[in-house]
């Protein structure tokens, strides 16, 4: 059984004050309470929230939409819609040569386009052999204003109108106006009302005194104990079951969290991290990977070429010579190469890297096997921005080079890597220009009951390794981090990862698949 006396005793001053106001008038609004009791509206809503948490009252929230004219809307309301201004001229002249339309009707170029579109849509006029002519429907409309024009006039003479106050015809007019761009501003107006619950009614029936307005102590301090002031303080009771407000501490961006998770997995597997530059030569980005200089991927529509600097410095002459030889006739790889004259000037071109694999070839050229390396970085491609493509995104690359390793080792490493990411993985044959025995990795999504491609892998071709002086096999694999993030966070639009959607960022759990490290 509810102890009403105990509840009343624990009620703070403002909550009792609000209850007294509700006793007098249950329909009183928060603003009226604030004015009546000469207190801040925030104090009223704070007291109401606390009473609602104790099930003493219910706080009802009502949201309405208020519409008003924008600056452009006011101009149209004042001068008249472009099609109305043309119709007013047509009412007397019946037809206007198209070349004279703007001048005769006092329209600018943009207004002329708008007027013609809406004249056609409303059926007021038609174009015949370069002349705009009024229609029968236009004749009828000369003295009869449409609902869109009427609501425009009504809004012009007001500071804004609640949608709920508009008639059905006015709402139709508003919908027509909304089909034009930037004429209407919409603003949500929120109001609150209170309702006494049974406990609240019982408190009022029981009766209570508000008491004096005095400062309430929320904690006992050392100073209070030392000087004896604790004896005269009024301590506010605590409800340990009361709801607390949400807090939003700073946290890493979800994309950054996944990058750190991947980095930790590689380091746990004994890999060393390497970083390259976002601006690199076509030599490392393409030529070192045995990609011919006339390959379609090198075209301007796929790659960002940089004007300043227009050229990059090439590595040691011996490496450049070996790569050139391999392209032309296969060099010492027993390959026939591509059979063309390799151009050093093409290799010097500056590009924004299109992948991170160039970091792997550069690492192979400067380190002796055995080695295990990974890299994480931004890459750039001339992609059309849409729900699954961006011109800038992240790639992660893994590289292992050692005596005796094989494709079987590659599959084993991949299984362990994806297992640490939390996925079951399977492989299917694939083709990549700089690897042989290549495969694509597919992960199983339990919620979709389906497999989805996530990354590719393969053994580097001899045409890649031999010019760099590597005499042992090397395996490589990589994944797109944004694609992984879309799967992890269940989003269908890649652009969400780069939007400042504060609600989405706040709602993502801190421990969403990411292992956190704490140092004590």
CA-CA gap between termini: 48 Å
Roughly how many Å is the radius of gyration? 36 Å
As a percent range, the share of helical residues equals 25-40%
CATH fold node name of the largest domain: BirA Bifunctional Protein, domain 2
Unreliable stretches: 512-520
Please name the fourth-level CATH homologous superfamily of the largest domain: Bira Bifunctional Protein, Domain 2
In short:
The protein has 520 residues and is α+β, with helices and mostly antiparallel strands. Helix content is 39%, strand content 21%.
Describe the structure.
With 520 residues, the protein is an alpha+beta fold. The protein folds into 3 domains: 72 residues; 119 residues, Winged helix-like DNA-binding domain superfamily/Winged helix DNA-binding domain (Arc Repressor Mutant, subunit A); 253 residues, Bira Bifunctional Protein, Domain 2 (BirA Bifunctional Protein, domain 2). The protein has 22 helices and 17 strands. A 7-stranded mixed beta sheet has the order 9-12-13-17-16-15-14, sandwiched between helices. The chain has a 3-stranded antiparallel beta sheet with strand order 5-1-6. The protein has a 3-stranded antiparallel beta sheet with strand order 2-4-3. A hairpin with a 2-residue loop joins strand 14 and strand 15. It is flat, with a radius of gyration of 36 Å. The C terminus is likely disordered.
